[in-house]
Amino acid sequence: MSEWKEVRLGDIGKIVTGKTPPKKYENVLTNNKKNNIMFLTPSDMNYNLKYINTTERFVTQKGLEFISNCILSEEAICVSCIGSDLGKVYKIKEKAISNQQINSIIVDNSVNSDYIYYYLRNIKDIFKRLAGGSATPILNKTTFSNIKIKIPPLPIQKKIADILSVIDEKIETLQNINSTLEEMAKAIFKSWFVDFEIVKAKTNGKSESEIAKEFGMSKEIVKLFPSELVDSEIGMIPKGWEVKNFGSLLEKHIGGDWGKDVKDLKYSKKVKIIRGTDIPKIKNLDFEEIPTRFVESKKLKTRQLLDGDIIIEISGGTKGQPTGRSLFLTHEIIEILGYKVEPASFCRLFRPISKKIGVLIYYHLLYIYDKGKMWMYQNQSTGISNFQTKYFLEEEKVLIPSNDLIENFYKTTRPLIDRIYSSEKPILQNLRDILLTKLINGEIEVNEMFIKGFE
Predict the structure, then answer these.
(1) Which of 13, 80, 149, 331 has the fewest C-beta atoms under 10 angstroms from its C-beta?
(2) What value does the CA radius of gyration of the chain take, rounded to a whole number of Å?
């Protein structure tokens, strides 16, 4: 540690505070990435990945004319510096521009970029303390530039960064695998229950053997699909399948809870509360910021989440994002959270009539959300979208195949869901964060034997 020295962030690189293109001009931001550059906001930051690979919106060439002095070069380190997202740290692999809620540093050659990234990840509490205790804490550019960090000689910086980068590469690989598993399950649902590909193949005269080979399934499953389409209230559907209201497929549904942040005689049960904003985080196996609260025993009894339950977000949508995001609960999720779990007050618990039906209607929810159908069930109020649950449960139609086919869909897709949440990713994240603290503080000596253990 004697060779380590203390430096200001502003002394080891260029500090850039982002900027949003003027809204009074048209076509400065777009959802199309082609020929445009990423526009980074705190909502694009998934805390448990190292790099941002894409963003919700992109700056057009016209937009660049107004904020060209804010362009970030590849490998820039971006830190969210406002509100509840304060302290999130990311790197970028390509040029980008951030909004004004993010301060970034483009480090010079005197330091290792990855080392600085990991160091900043480790000082989230310092960011929050410097930002103050106001309702909306802010870390401005001057304060950010004056933050002091400790750095070892450059070769040691590189060794520390290399060790942690190996773990992050494994985490990213697992994340890509999990995304593939989710897309596989969604594709199976669409093929079987939306596009009716197997049914149509039968109507076109293909044999069961040909269909089984084409779709990679057994002949026994192929036999379960009808060979004819008939008219119904929702259009042409496979013969013998039923159309049911979404609400008829639930055993119960109930609003969420919030409780208190401090235990008392009435609010005595310690729980984890899943908010709408936590749904995409959990799907990325990011459990770090899910709040711990204390709730009433009687409310926990009616709202405690179980394996096979579905959480749906019913409030908090925005102009560009409807409510209706959903999450299928598994034993693995509940076990990772480590406590009894409830939905937040802006969410709702859907308990299906069976776990098998639950998987079917969960993928139905994902499909209609991706297709934008959830906008039909929004009620705009004071700039916030609310989900019309009663209307949805009565009016949304779900196609129900035979019991045997429901069971086979469950047997096909439930293992994919379970594999996502039984991944070693949370273990690796925990290992990385423990090592990060010890390496940055010089508690572990970085020698060749230690490094080889991570190669």
Answers:
(1) 331
(2) 25
Distance CA 440, CA 303 (A): 42
Give domain status of residue 292, yes or no.
Answer: yes
State how far the Cα of 122 lies from the Cα of 307, in Å rounded to an integer: 34
Q: Are 44 and 23 in contact (CB under 8 A)?
A: no
Buried b (16+ CB within 10 A) or exposed e, 188-197: bbbebbeebe
Instruction: Mark whether 132 and 251 lie in a shared domain.
Output: no
Break the chain down into helix, strand, coil percent, rounded to 5: 40, 25, 35
**How far apart are alpha carbons 99 and 120 in whole angstroms?**
19
Secondary structure class of 416 (helix, strand, coil): helix
Structural domain count, the chain: 2
Hey, which of 220-234, 273-287, 409-423 has the most confident mean pLDDT? 220-234
pLDDT in tens, 287-323: 888 999 999 999 999 999 999 999 999 998 776 788 9
What residues have CB less than 8 Å from 186, skipping those under 6 apart?
A: 363, 366, 367, 370
Question: 322: domain CATH number?
Answer: 3.90.220.20
400 token code pair: 């129900």
What is the residue range of 129's domain? 5-152
Here the tokens at position 302 are 């009616």
Neighbours of 1 (CB within 10 A): 8
Among 400, 425, 449, identify where a domain stops: 400
